[in-house]
Design a protein that fits this description.
The structure holds two protein chains of two kinds. Chain A is mostly helical. Chain A has one domain: ABC transporter involved in vitamin B12 uptake, BtuC (Orthogonal Bundle), CATH 1.10.3470. Helices cover 75% and strands 3% of the residues of chain A. In chain A, strands 1-2 form a two-stranded antiparallel ribbon. Chain A is globular. Chain B is mainly α. Chain B is 72% helix and 1% strand. In chain B, strands 1-2 form a two-stranded antiparallel sheet. The longest helix of chain B is centred in the last third of the chain and has 28 residues. Chain B is globular, with a radius of gyration of 21 Å. Classes of the chains: A mainly alpha, B mainly alpha. The interface between A and B is large, with 43 and 47 residues.
């Protein structure tokens, strides 16, 4: 039982990172109806920029957060302005393919920078474990988890109570209707990309804190996209719940199934879950059900 | 657009793909040149042509399922892996000759493709694209964890042989690969103008309307996946016996993304587009390969071997540029060019 709980807790910690990335994807989908593969790279570059200032220049933690966030937000803005805005009015699938083009472009830059190595962040969060009834939780992961929960709460509040949030919700409902009721839909698109780049950057920094800045980081973004789809592409709650769930499933599944099949369950669990969800509930666990004939 | 002064007097003429004697001359001389190429081409060019031809076969399959039937698949690299591994297992573990393993690996990949295409019956668009990405990872995972596929070490399939003649060099494999490519292109070009091809296009353009007109979505979607994966399997088998070593590193998600990129650049829904797209990306790759040492020398911060990374960036940028400025791909430009030279002195 302790083993199970320990794996579940580790899973929760990893899952919170997935949830953050998924939240970034959901934000973009909610208002622009673009499904983005590009967020994997925003995650990676968020972590990379943070490393540049923390590890590269040796700035203190709080100060290096600011330029890292600014640069990632700028990247999100540029992606929206240069790549996705020319595609407004084209089929949405073209935008999806565009995000995949962005993914490979930035993947090249990322690989070029890393040159096959990895960059480990200096410890900026307190090390050590919190023990509780024989279960141990690394404190730095716990802080990442708490950051994720707080960010989710903040996002929900922004969506619910601010004017920009209201504009975003209206844009998500119907672009033309929002435009004609005086909402600047195009600047909403820019805001949403900046916001989601910031969320992705937080996810990237929290992930790099656990496992360094290395070549697999962009693929965490693909896991985030899987979480977003499983949770329902327009549901923040879904992203949060399914993110945690997927982390737990991966870890517990690996713990119990690895001895049976000879390892590697962790690499494939997310994809199997995605296939199952797509076959059983294509609109996700918490998503808005659209009746559509296939 | 028909050339001036060429009139169709019978149904056969109307349906012909090659309609004037000039076409026949161009086609036949191109074929003869293709087969004589190893006599004067350098080793580098021949292996480049082999790679091109194999990629053309893969992307032809993708064109059928994505360009004609409208079901975007990011799983083509995995299905190619299925073909490569089937062929290798048959020749290495069971001692079958290459000539039997080649069609069997196509059918095997097609069969797996039907399973992989099953989600298309319930979902479409990017949901399907994500499902095929998932299938890619599941297939590669299975290949890595099954005993028969040699897991991480991979397999070493032999070169094909006919009697005592060994097809053990790139020049010799060239003839097999080109022949298969020509047959596959011929089949694809004709498949898309049969009843089956029209059903595919109906599903792509409006599946509901197609269904009302009596097109069975289940049958034709799965058929499209079967054909597409059959192509991938054949290409995988050729690839395995060309380089005589297969491992899972040769079939990554980035390869699958590259095939979709070739399709976008070439133009969806056009068989010549496949050739344009494959040529464009492969030549782009070669250009990057040759310029990157120069760049690395000029800009030391790029590192010693930036070729792979720069190739990815160039590829992504090319796809992005085509999506923005010419979403119909090079095939559309080619059509415009053909129309204009056929009308030449006149504007329209």
């Amino acid at each position: 039982m302790t083993g199970f709980l320990q794996q579940a807790i580790t899973g929760l910690m990893v899952g919170s990172l997935y949830a953050l990335v998924a939240a970034a994807v959901v934000l973009v989908y909610k208002s622009t109806h673009v499904v983005s593969l590009a967020h994997g790279q925003l995650v990676a570059f968020g972590a990379l920029f943070f490393w540049l200032f923390l590890g590269g220049l040796g700035l203190p933690f709080w100060i290096s957060l600011i330029p890292a966030f600014l640069l990632t937000a700028l990247m999100g803005l540029l992606i929206e302005r240069l790549a996705l805005r020319p595609l407004i009015g084209q089929p949405l699938f073209a935008a999806f393919l565009m995000t995949f083009a962005i993914f490979t472009t930035l993947e090249g830059v990322f690989v070029l920078y890393l040159k096959g190595g990895s960059r480990s962040l200096p410890a900026f969060l307190p090390k050590g474990n919190l023990s509780l009834h024989g279960l141990s939780v690394p404190i730095n992961q716990l802080i990442g988890f708490c950051a994720a929960v707080l960010l989710f709460a903040a996002l929900s509040l922004v969506f619910k109570y601010t004017k920009v949030g209201l504009g975003m919700r209206a844009t998500a409902e119907d672009h033309r209707l929002a435009q004609s009721s005086g909402i600047a839909v195009r600047s909403i698109f820019s805001y949403i990309w900046i916001l989601s780049a910031l969320v992705a950057a937080v996810g990237g920094i929290a992930t790099a804190n656990v496992m360094d800045v290395y070549y697999m980081l962009p693929y965490i973004g693909i896991n985030g996209l899987i979480v977003a789809i499983c949770g329902g592409l327009d549901s923040l709650l879904g992203a949060f719940v399914v993110g945690l769930l997927l982390g737990v499933v991966e870890n517990v599944g690996a713990g119990y199934l690895d001895p049976l099949v000879g390892g590697g369950v962790k690499d494939v669990a997310a994809y199997v879950v995605l296939l199952l969800v797509l076959l059983l509930r294509p609109y996700g666990l918490f998503g808005l059900v659209r009746i559509e004939r296939i | 657009m028909r050339p001036c002064g060429v009139f169709d007097k019978s149904y056969t003429q109307d349906m012909a793909i090659i309609r004037t004697w000039q076409h026949w001359v161009i086609l036949l001389s191109a074929l003869i040149l293709l087969y004589l190429f190893p006599l004067f081409g350098s080793y580098y060019l021949i292996s480049f042509m082999n790679l091109l031809a194999i990629t053309v076969i893969v992307v032809l399959g993708l064109q059928i399922v994505s360009g004609y039937c409208g079901q975007i698949s990011f799983g083509q690299a995995a299905f190619m892996a299925v073909g490569a591994y089937t062929s290798s297992v048959l020749t290495v573990k069971f001692g079958f000759p290459f000539w039997i393993a080649l069609p069997v690996s196509g059918v095997m990949a097609g069969a797996i493709g039907i399973i992989g295409g099953a989600p298309s019956l319930r979902i479409k668009g990017f949901y399907l694209a994500m499902a095929t990405i998932a299938i890619h990872f599941v297939v590669i995972w299975l290949i890595l964890h099954l005993d028969i596929t040699g897991s991480f070490k991979g397999l070493y399939p032999p070169s094909p042989s006919l009697g005592s003649f060994q097809f053990d060099t790139d020049e010799r494999m060239y003839y097999i690969i080109m022949t298969v490519m020509i047959i596959m292109t011929y089949c694809a070009r004709n498949l898309v103008r049969t009843k089956v091809g029209r059903a595919f296009v109906a599903i792509r353009d409006n599946d509901l309307a197609g269904q009302v007109m009596g097109v069975s979505l289940y049958y034709y979607k799965l058929l499209a996946f079967f054909v597409s994966c059959f192509y991938a399997g054949i290409a995988g088998s050729l690839w395995a016996h060309l380089i005589t070593v297969v491992n899972s590193e040769q079939f990554t998600l980035l390869h699958a993304l590259e095939y979709v990129g070739m399709l976008i650049i070439g133009g969806m829904g056009s068989i010549p587009g496949v050739f344009f797209g494959v040529l464009f990306i492969r030549i782009l790759n070669e250009v990057v390969m040759f310029t990157s040492p120069v760049l690395a020398k000029a800009f030391p911060w790029l590192g010693v071997s930036p070729a792979a990374a720069l190739g990815l960036t160039a590829f992504g940028l090319a796809v992005a540029v085509f999506l923005i400025f010419e979403p119909r791909g090079l095939a559309h430009r080619w059509e415009i060019f053909k129309a204009s030279y056929r009308l030449y002195p006149f504007a329209y």
